[in-house]
Amino acid sequence: MVYIKLPREEERRLSFYLAMEEYVAREVDVRDAFFIWQVLPSVIFGRNQLIENEVNIDYCRRNGVMMYRRKSGGGCVYADKSNMMLSFITSSDCVSLTYNRYIMMVVDALHKIGIPATANGRNDIMIEGRKVSGNAFYHIPGRSIVHGTMLYDTDMRNMTACITPDDEKLLSKGVKSVRQHIALLKDYTTMPIDMVRKSIIENVCDTTMTLTDSDVEKIEEMEKKYLTDDFIYGNNPKYTVIRKQRIENVGTIEARMEVKNDTIRDIDLKGDFFLTGDIDAIRNALKGVSLNNDDIIAALPDNISDIIMNLNKDDLAGVILKQKTKEQS
């Protein structure tokens, strides 16, 4: 495993590191790469999420908390200097194998400093039943990128004020608040964050590569697209029907539909699910389909679980046909 270093340590936006992952994946000729980074207070939400559902935008703007969207799926997270962000880039195309390798690699590194971490069934690393690291994945041709948080400590007031989690999501985990749901590394080790970071790097990587100033310039150019309003806020057209449900081992799916004469004219799917294929294959299959369970299931692609991780046709049909959660006139 190669540890990727920058030529100089300096304060950078979270968007720079998202671009750095993509640059390493596309341009750096190593099979497996890894790096750790830290940022000033920021929130980062998933590719398929609606910012207004996940983030207290007014609070973030008033308190100087930056807001970013990533290209991977999954949920919204808060980051600051008291936690770490981890990035893993590999040549493997298999989602499950890539996730498993990354998570077990990090769990093993934590075990070596005496922290009793475990992997759960989806994408998290846990300590005594509470989440210390959440992770997400996306794929480009020939390369896979996994990135995640690692909570050493955090500004709990900022975290809970910035993020507006779905009550259904918290209840599905058997907790009533964000704080009940998370663990902090500082409660399980006397090592300062810099030493934990150093130990993880030493346990995961066996060599180092330092990027050049030219590499940094190219990353900064690539970063620009992550900073556009179109990318961050997205294009959210008005839909006549919105239906939402949380599905075990999939996540929250929000189906936003334009419906006329009981027929789906257009549909978009939002949420914290993990996208592993082209979501347009689902959207296009449902256009023109009547709001009938058999018709929806017949129209959906057979490989739906290869598009949205762990999803099946019956569950998606159930979301689309459930009692309306919101209608717009």
TrEMBL record:
List GO BP terms, alphabetically: protein lipoylation
> Does the record's keyword annotation contain Membrane?
no
User: Does Nucleotide-binding count among this protein's keywords?
Assistant: yes
- Gene3D superfamilies given in the database record: Bira Bifunctional Protein, Domain 2, CO dehydrogenase flavoprotein, C-terminal domain
Which pathway is this protein assigned to? Protein modification; protein lipoylation via exogenous pathway; protein N(6)-(lipoyl)lysine from lipoate: step 1/2; Protein modification; protein lipoylation via exogenous pathway; protein N(6)-(lipoyl)lysine from lipoate: step 2/2
- Molecular function GO labels: ATP binding; lipoate-protein ligase activity; lipoyltransferase activity
GO cellular component terms listed in the entry, alphabetical order: cytoplasm
The enzyme's first-digit EC class, named in words, is ligase
Against NCBIfam families, the record matches this protein to: lipoyltrans (TIGR00545)
Q: What is this protein called?
A: lipoate--protein ligase
Naturally occurring in which organism (per UniProt): Prevotella koreensis
